[in-house]
Fold:
Amino acid sequence: MKKPIIVFDLDGTLVDTAPDLLASLNHSLEAGGLAMTDATGFRSYVGNGGRVMIERAYAAQRKPLAPDEHDRLYAVFLDHYGTHMPGGSKPYPGVMKAIQKLQQAGFLVAICTNKTEALARQLLAALGIADQFAAICGQDSFAMRKPDPRALINTIELAGGDAERAVMIGDSRTDIDTAKAAGIPVVAVDFGYTDRHVREFEPSKIISHFDQLTVELVQGLMASALGKTA
Structure:
Protein backbone atom coordinates (compact mmCIF):
# COMPACT_ATOMS: atom_id res chain seq x y z
CA MET A 1 0.00 0.00 0.00
CA LYS A 2 1.31 3.42 -0.97
CA LYS A 3 2.09 5.89 1.80
CA PRO A 4 0.62 9.36 2.33
CA ILE A 5 2.97 12.08 1.12
CA ILE A 6 3.88 15.72 1.70
CA VAL A 7 5.41 17.52 -1.31
CA PHE A 8 7.42 20.68 -0.71
CA ASP A 9 8.37 23.46 -3.05
CA LEU A 10 12.03 24.41 -2.50
CA ASP A 11 12.94 28.09 -2.87
CA GLY A 12 10.98 30.28 -0.47
CA THR A 13 9.24 27.29 1.10
CA LEU A 14 11.73 24.74 2.38
CA VAL A 15 14.93 26.78 2.03
CA ASP A 16 15.56 30.52 2.14
CA THR A 17 17.73 30.85 -0.96
CA ALA A 18 17.15 34.56 -1.61
CA PRO A 19 20.57 35.82 -0.42
CA ASP A 20 22.44 33.61 -2.88
CA LEU A 21 20.04 34.01 -5.79
CA LEU A 22 20.21 37.79 -5.42
CA ALA A 23 24.00 37.66 -5.22
CA SER A 24 24.07 35.66 -8.46
CA LEU A 25 21.66 38.12 -10.06
CA ASN A 26 23.94 41.02 -9.22
CA HIS A 27 26.95 39.09 -10.50
CA SER A 28 25.21 38.53 -13.83
CA LEU A 29 24.10 42.18 -14.03
CA GLU A 30 27.67 43.30 -13.42
CA ALA A 31 28.72 41.04 -16.31
CA GLY A 32 26.18 42.89 -18.45
CA GLY A 33 27.40 46.31 -17.39
CA LEU A 34 24.34 47.18 -15.31
CA ALA A 35 24.05 48.54 -11.79
CA MET A 36 23.38 46.06 -9.02
CA THR A 37 19.81 45.74 -7.77
CA ASP A 38 18.26 46.57 -4.45
CA ALA A 39 17.98 43.16 -2.79
CA THR A 40 14.89 44.18 -0.83
CA GLY A 41 13.00 45.26 -3.91
CA PHE A 42 13.82 42.11 -5.87
CA ARG A 43 13.23 39.54 -3.14
CA SER A 44 9.64 38.95 -4.27
CA TYR A 45 10.88 37.93 -7.73
CA VAL A 46 13.33 35.29 -6.51
CA GLY A 47 10.80 32.49 -6.91
CA ASN A 48 10.42 33.25 -10.62
CA GLY A 49 13.93 32.03 -11.44
CA GLY A 50 17.10 33.59 -12.76
CA ARG A 51 15.90 34.35 -16.28
CA VAL A 52 12.93 36.34 -15.05
CA MET A 53 15.02 38.12 -12.42
CA ILE A 54 17.50 39.25 -15.09
CA GLU A 55 14.69 40.36 -17.39
CA ARG A 56 13.02 42.40 -14.65
CA ALA A 57 16.29 43.95 -13.56
CA TYR A 58 16.89 45.17 -17.11
CA ALA A 59 13.33 46.49 -17.33
CA ALA A 60 13.72 48.29 -13.99
CA GLN A 61 16.83 50.04 -15.32
CA ARG A 62 15.15 50.66 -18.69
CA LYS A 63 17.84 48.83 -20.58
CA PRO A 64 17.25 46.68 -23.70
CA LEU A 65 17.98 42.98 -23.34
CA ALA A 66 18.66 41.04 -26.52
CA PRO A 67 17.81 37.31 -26.47
CA ASP A 68 21.42 36.19 -26.94
CA GLU A 69 22.59 38.49 -24.14
CA HIS A 70 19.79 37.17 -21.95
CA ASP A 71 21.02 33.63 -22.57
CA ARG A 72 24.62 34.61 -21.83
CA LEU A 73 23.76 36.33 -18.57
CA TYR A 74 21.57 33.45 -17.46
CA ALA A 75 24.53 31.11 -18.00
CA VAL A 76 26.68 33.49 -15.92
CA PHE A 77 23.95 33.46 -13.24
CA LEU A 78 23.79 29.65 -13.11
CA ASP A 79 27.56 29.25 -12.99
CA HIS A 80 27.89 31.71 -10.12
CA TYR A 81 24.97 30.22 -8.21
CA GLY A 82 26.14 26.63 -8.54
CA THR A 83 29.74 27.49 -7.66
CA HIS A 84 28.81 29.29 -4.44
CA MET A 85 26.19 26.85 -3.16
CA PRO A 86 24.96 26.66 -0.43
CA GLY A 87 26.34 30.08 0.54
CA GLY A 88 23.92 31.74 2.93
CA SER A 89 20.96 29.52 2.01
CA LYS A 90 19.43 27.57 4.88
CA PRO A 91 16.24 25.70 5.74
CA TYR A 92 13.51 27.83 7.28
CA PRO A 93 13.17 27.62 11.06
CA GLY A 94 11.31 24.52 12.20
CA VAL A 95 10.98 22.87 8.80
CA MET A 96 13.31 19.93 9.40
CA LYS A 97 11.71 19.26 12.78
CA ALA A 98 8.28 19.27 11.11
CA ILE A 99 9.53 16.88 8.43
CA GLN A 100 10.93 14.53 11.06
CA LYS A 101 7.58 14.40 12.85
CA LEU A 102 5.72 13.75 9.60
CA GLN A 103 8.10 10.95 8.68
CA GLN A 104 7.73 9.40 12.12
CA ALA A 105 3.96 9.42 11.54
CA GLY A 106 4.42 7.45 8.31
CA PHE A 107 4.45 10.19 5.68
CA LEU A 108 6.79 10.28 2.71
CA VAL A 109 8.33 13.67 1.91
CA ALA A 110 9.33 14.87 -1.56
CA ILE A 111 10.40 18.00 -3.46
CA CYS A 112 8.70 19.47 -6.54
CA THR A 113 10.49 22.65 -7.63
CA ASN A 114 10.94 24.76 -10.73
CA LYS A 115 14.67 24.88 -9.99
CA THR A 116 16.58 22.48 -12.23
CA GLU A 117 16.80 19.03 -10.70
CA ALA A 118 20.61 19.13 -10.66
CA LEU A 119 20.72 22.43 -8.77
CA ALA A 120 18.02 21.26 -6.36
CA ARG A 121 19.96 18.09 -5.58
CA GLN A 122 23.20 20.04 -5.27
CA LEU A 123 21.66 22.49 -2.83
CA LEU A 124 20.02 19.86 -0.66
CA ALA A 125 23.19 17.77 -0.63
CA ALA A 126 25.27 20.80 0.35
CA LEU A 127 22.85 21.43 3.22
CA GLY A 128 23.12 17.77 4.26
CA ILE A 129 19.41 17.02 3.91
CA ALA A 130 19.03 15.41 0.47
CA ASP A 131 18.52 11.95 1.96
CA GLN A 132 15.34 13.09 3.71
CA PHE A 133 13.34 13.13 0.47
CA ALA A 134 11.81 10.17 -1.36
CA ALA A 135 11.99 12.14 -4.63
CA ILE A 136 13.60 15.42 -5.71
CA CYS A 137 12.06 16.69 -8.94
CA GLY A 138 12.83 19.88 -10.82
CA GLN A 139 11.70 21.83 -13.86
CA ASP A 140 13.53 19.41 -16.17
CA SER A 141 12.64 16.13 -14.46
CA PHE A 142 9.56 15.68 -16.64
CA ALA A 143 8.25 17.04 -19.92
CA MET A 144 6.22 19.60 -17.97
CA ARG A 145 6.78 21.86 -14.97
CA LYS A 146 4.60 23.63 -12.41
CA PRO A 147 1.90 24.91 -12.69
CA ASP A 148 1.12 21.87 -14.82
CA PRO A 149 -0.40 19.46 -12.26
CA ARG A 150 1.34 16.50 -13.90
CA ALA A 151 4.65 17.74 -12.47
CA LEU A 152 3.23 17.26 -8.97
CA ILE A 153 1.46 13.98 -9.76
CA ASN A 154 4.62 12.57 -11.35
CA THR A 155 6.67 13.60 -8.32
CA ILE A 156 4.26 11.76 -6.05
CA GLU A 157 4.40 8.65 -8.24
CA LEU A 158 8.20 8.72 -8.41
CA ALA A 159 8.36 8.93 -4.61
CA GLY A 160 5.99 5.99 -4.25
CA GLY A 161 3.31 8.10 -2.58
CA ASP A 162 -0.47 8.03 -2.72
CA ALA A 163 -1.85 10.95 -4.75
CA GLU A 164 -5.18 10.61 -2.95
CA ARG A 165 -3.43 11.16 0.38
CA ALA A 166 -1.13 14.05 -0.47
CA VAL A 167 -0.58 17.66 0.56
CA MET A 168 1.49 20.30 -1.24
CA ILE A 169 3.47 22.94 0.69
CA GLY A 170 4.39 26.09 -1.24
CA ASP A 171 4.87 29.84 -1.15
CA SER A 172 3.48 31.09 -4.46
CA ARG A 173 0.54 31.21 -6.81
CA THR A 174 2.34 28.67 -8.98
CA ASP A 175 2.40 26.12 -6.15
CA ILE A 176 -1.20 26.80 -5.17
CA ASP A 177 -2.48 26.59 -8.75
CA THR A 178 -0.53 23.38 -9.33
CA ALA A 179 -2.00 21.65 -6.28
CA LYS A 180 -5.53 22.82 -7.02
CA ALA A 181 -5.31 21.56 -10.59
CA ALA A 182 -4.13 18.20 -9.25
CA GLY A 183 -7.00 18.06 -6.75
CA ILE A 184 -4.55 18.10 -3.84
CA PRO A 185 -4.82 20.28 -0.69
CA VAL A 186 -2.17 22.97 -0.43
CA VAL A 187 -0.63 24.69 2.58
CA ALA A 188 0.88 28.09 1.77
CA VAL A 189 3.62 29.68 3.83
CA ASP A 190 3.30 33.46 4.11
CA PHE A 191 7.03 34.22 4.32
CA GLY A 192 8.16 33.14 0.85
CA TYR A 193 8.86 34.88 -2.44
CA THR A 194 5.75 36.48 -3.86
CA ASP A 195 4.69 40.06 -4.57
CA ARG A 196 1.10 39.33 -3.49
CA HIS A 197 -0.05 37.77 -0.23
CA VAL A 198 -0.80 34.08 -0.62
CA ARG A 199 -4.29 34.54 0.82
CA GLU A 200 -5.29 36.04 -2.54
CA PHE A 201 -4.77 32.65 -4.19
CA GLU A 202 -7.00 30.80 -1.69
CA PRO A 203 -4.84 27.90 -0.50
CA SER A 204 -6.34 25.26 1.76
CA LYS A 205 -4.40 26.63 4.74
CA ILE A 206 -1.86 29.38 5.46
CA ILE A 207 0.93 29.04 8.01
CA SER A 208 3.46 31.56 9.28
CA HIS A 209 5.90 29.10 10.89
CA PHE A 210 6.60 25.42 10.41
CA ASP A 211 5.58 24.76 14.01
CA GLN A 212 2.06 25.00 12.55
CA LEU A 213 2.69 22.19 10.04
CA THR A 214 1.53 19.40 12.31
CA VAL A 215 0.57 15.81 11.64
CA GLU A 216 -2.97 16.68 12.72
CA LEU A 217 -3.16 19.52 10.19
CA VAL A 218 -2.15 17.44 7.19
CA GLN A 219 -4.27 14.50 8.26
CA GLY A 220 -7.25 16.82 8.49
CA LEU A 221 -6.62 18.24 5.02
CA MET A 222 -6.29 14.75 3.55
CA ALA A 223 -9.47 13.61 5.26
CA SER A 224 -11.40 16.62 3.97
CA ALA A 225 -10.12 16.01 0.44
CA LEU A 226 -11.42 12.43 0.67
CA GLY A 227 -14.77 13.66 1.96
CA LYS A 228 -14.24 12.22 5.41
CA THR A 229 -14.35 13.69 8.88
CA ALA A 230 -10.87 14.20 10.32
Observations:
- The mean pLDDT is 94.
- The beta strands are 3-8, 15-16, 90-91, 108-112, 135-137, 161-170, 186-189, 205-207.
- DSSP finds nine helices and eight strands in the chain.
